[in-house]
Design a protein that fits this description.
single chain, 246 residues, alpha+beta, Beta-Lactamase, 2 domains, 5-stranded antiparallel sheet, 9 helices, 51% helix, transcription regulation
């Protein structure tokens, strides 16, 4: 996955959704509260983003996919059509670790099961966004379904800019509403959390000579201290380089 950094081209909007995304990025993947965090993220997207009519969250466990949160039965039906065919934007977003937008569902030829179900239920456009927890690898896909392709296009551009600042945000960015800006802000903050954790894992791997155990070591350190992975990672980095000017 490419290096990520905050981008000033995106409208900055902090709130409960952005905080939830940053918190998830600093939570161990096996933490008992991860599913609750994913449910909250899906709910907030459905409530706050103007382009989104329905939202759901797909998780993958042992090669199987399931919907852990959905704002409506329509979102569940579209998700399950993808699971049945084992193909679709939400599965591909998790597998590829990149966002996947479908600007015109009726015109897509890649996933017939997804296309037929979504179009029959009145959906015109979608965006699937991979989400990650403390290990830094995708654990879920946030699926956003809507009716307005122009509004979803603006949201897709903002999400892509959060994932890779080298990608132009596009001319539709002024259409982005406050909820969409909050999603983009949260993703940018999540990548900043991820960068700190990955840096700390590198410190641990170099110090102990056991790269495969670095995450487990950081996970244990966070548990012993009763802190998040991000806080534990910050401490590891500070201990390795106590000069605050560097």
């Amino acid at each position: 996955m490419a290096q990520h950094r905050p981008t000033p081209r995106l409208p900055q909007h902090r709130g409960e959704l952005s905080a939830a995304l940053a918190t998830l990025a600093g939570t161990p993947d096996d933490h008992s509260g991860v599913d609750d965090q994913l449910i909250a993220i899906g709910r907030l997207c459905a409530q706050r983003i103007a382009a989104v009519r329905y939202a759901s969250v797909t998780v993958r466990h042992d090669g199987a996919y399931t919907t852990v949160a959905a704002s409506n039965d329509i979102a569940v039906a579209v998700d399950e059509a993808q699971y049945a065919e084992r193909a679709g934007p939400c599965l591909e977003a998790i597998d590829s670790a990149t966002p996947l937008g479908v600007p015109d569902i009726a015109a897509t030829m890649r996933w017939p099961g997804f296309r037929e179900t979504a179009y029959r239920l009145g959906l015109h456009t979608s965006l699937s966004v991979p989400l990650f927890a403390g290990r830094g690898e995708p654990i879920a896909a946030l699926n956003l379904y809507g009716h307005d392709s122009a509004m979803m296009s603006a949201l897709t551009a903002a999400v892509w800019a959060a994932y890779d600042p080298a990608v132009p945000a596009g001319p539709d960015l002024p259409r982005l509403d406050a909820g969409g800006a909050e999603l983009a802000t949260g993703l940018t903050e999540a990548f900043a959390v991820r960068a700190v954790i990955q840096r700390a894992l590198g410190v641990i791997a170099r110090r102990e000579g056991l790269p495969d155990r670095a995450y487990a070591t950081l996970r244990l350190r966070a548990a012993d201290a009763g802190t998040s992975l991000f806080d534990a990672a910050t401490t590891v980095i500070r201990e390795s380089d106590p000069d605050p000017r560097r």
